[in-house]
Prior knowledge:
A: globular; B: mainly beta; 11 strands
Amino acid sequence: KAGVTQTPRYLIKTRGQQVTLSCSPISGHRSVSWYQQTPGQGLQFLFEYFSETQRNKGNFPGRFSGRQFSNSRSEMNVSTLELGDSALYLCASSPQRQDYGYTFGSGTRLTVV
Amino acid sequence: GENVEQHPSTLSVQEGDSAVIKCTYSDSASNYFPWYKQELGKRPQLIIDIRSNVGEKKDQRIAVTLNKTAKHFSLHITETQPEDSAVYFCAASIGGSQGNLIFGKGTKLSVKP
């Protein structure tokens, strides 16, 4: 059974650009969540999608957005990149709820220069 | 809002010693408490979890204890080994939600040979 797959693994972007990250959940998982991980800040929740609808949202500016497709794959987009957006972006999937079968992907390391 | 506090932020032990990481949570309706281990450069992985109908759960060298009255739970690792070195995250579910998890900021455990 394939795990949660995130692409790309590494990305370097310039300030002001935008970026799109992709997450393919475990087959059969309908919930996909996104986190930003920076040293000392732990896992900061961005948003959760379930059945193509945003179900929950964290406290991030509107530059951070996401979507989910009918096959449960999800993308997140960050527009007008800032240096402070440099981080590891993790996604996690579960069948329906975060308190059952919650599995993380390996993340996308974004560096903004 | 709901939060999870995790202590200590860093922990260094000698190989063979025990390690204890503690978390407190604010939402009295929380009923699911997982622990994740994140090795350097890898994804967080679930190592053990506990639900509020039990007070303790063990899996070989690791154990988790839960005190719902005091709203805290702890991870215990006995006979530590160098491969236990990693960042450990605790989490608690938010009551009344779709099982959404709030994570602590993590504990960096170093096991010295």
